[in-house]
Specification:
Two copies of one chain form a homodimer. By secondary structure, chain A is mainly α. Chain A folds into two domains: 3-66, Winged helix-like DNA-binding domain superfamily/Winged helix DNA-binding domain (Arc Repressor Mutant, subunit A); 71-221, Four Helix Bundle (Hemerythrin (Met), subunit A) (Up-down Bundle), CATH 1.20.120.530. Chain A is built from ten helices and three strands; from the N terminus they run H-E-H-H-E-E-H-H-H-H-H-H-H. The first copy, chain A, has a three-stranded antiparallel sheet. The structure holds a DNA duplex.
Chain lengths: 222, 222
DNA sequence: TATCGCTTTATTGTATACAATTTGAGAAAG
DNA sequence: CTTTCTCAAATTGTATACAATAAAGCGATA
């Protein structure tokens, strides 16, 4: 799938991430085809991929809806991520090279710079954070593991979490990456695994706290 | 996807499992469409699913081939399964009900009966074994976990393993299920997790040994 | 003879028309 | 007033034709 299918995928994904398509909204192929300027064929393709990403679910009768995520669902996803990314970190430690280490360091330096000022550059943080984790995953060297994790990361819910991070949360994320670098330098897989699992779990609690706060605000406003 | 797409999926999958389509073989949409008596559209659909199952891989230029599995790949898949099914067992222990327990026992009794004679009924063993594991997974109650594991189980390679089991291996599998039942009865999640992880790992070594044997036979015959 | 570049062929990607299915509204019966 | 049945509208599934792209063959040239 080249142009049209990718275009549809990116556009629909963006609509969901931006909230233009809200959780629970029905998703009709023809409407999206028109909206994206392509035919239904690549849209169906894109919907299938988004379903694999769990951003869309289908009813028994094959109608599509934007997925809604309960806090339990999110907790579930984070727990699985903690386990799988922990395993990835352990394997990455075993396969670590000087070149990868250099790139990981460079990534985390960019993260440090992005969050150092008064106005943290969240977009850069997210990009480099994704790059960091992708690099670890790649170094783990398991196609299958990569496949599995792809379905878990970059969920809408995860994606928006960092927008509610406190300055301390950003700092903590940065320094956990730094710890991870130490573990990789020493090729200490068990340590890397522990740090990574904790790193993901902390991200969940950051999300959970922010979510809690949002709910209270909503209740207060209502 | 109803008729045509499912038909294509089942037929192509069967072709791969039976070896009619061997590892590394190119997979052309039109040829399969003709073979399955449907058009290319549902075939493309089926190929997409098979790719998610890792039974097919696509090159950068989107041409499809039947996946080949090195021993390392298989080990990888089993290790991930051990981790994820172990986790599933832990969760299942927490959510266990009398009804599910009853069904699990019934499953394993059927397995016991299938392997008791001189000629183990491998088909029944495989069916009931799958049912047993599916039930545990369902009881774990995590859609996401189910999603992830679906990509790992029922690989061609896994599927054929039991055909090389020794009588002792069948017996061991049966009695490990029995241990699992004990853990579930006592709602001991940690125990269930340990047993399940070991169970999957043992299955890998059974595969690995059989594979080794096959390779030696091939070398001997050549 | 090896290699580069063009032409031809094979294969996949996309659009569109049509078939099958599901949903929902409204009428008829209880 | 509720329920159920029927039929129309909306939506997805499939087939087919055509467009785009990648592989392969083939010749010219160094």
């Amino acid at each position: 799938m080249t142009k049209a299918s990718d275009r549809a995928y990116d556009m629909i994904r963006a609509m969901i991430l931006s909230g233009e398509l809200a959780a629970g909204d029905p998703v009709r192929e023809e409407a999206l085809a028109e909206r994206c300027g392509v035919s239904r064929t690549p849209v169906r393709d894109a919907l299938r991929r988004l379903e694999a990403d769990l951003m869309i679910r289908k009813t028994e009768s094959q109608r599509s809806f934007v997925s809604d995520w309960s806090l339990d669902d999110v907790g579930d996803a984070f727990e699985l991520r903690a386990m799988l990314e922990g395993y990835a970190a352990k394997r990455a430690a075993a396969h670590m090279t000087a070149e990868v280490l250099r790139r990981l360091r460079s990534c985390n330096e960019a993260i440090g710079a992005a969050i150092s000022g008064n106005h943290p550059d969240v977009a850069t943080f997210l990009d480099r954070n994704r790059e960091f984790h992708a690099l670890v995953l790649e170094t783990a060297g398991s196609r299958r593991l990569t496949n599995l994790l792809t379905a878990l990361i970059e969920q809408p819910v995860v994606w928006r979490t960092a927008h509610h991070y406190s300055p301390e949360a950003f700092q903590r994320s940065y320094s956990e990456h730094d710890d991870l670098l130490s573990a990789f330098e020493r090729r200490d897989g068990a340590w890397a695994e522990t740090i990574m699992a904790g790193h993901i779990r902390r991200a969940f609690h950051a999300y959970s706290d922010a979510h809690q706060g949002l709910n209270e605000m909503e209740r207060g406003a209502a």
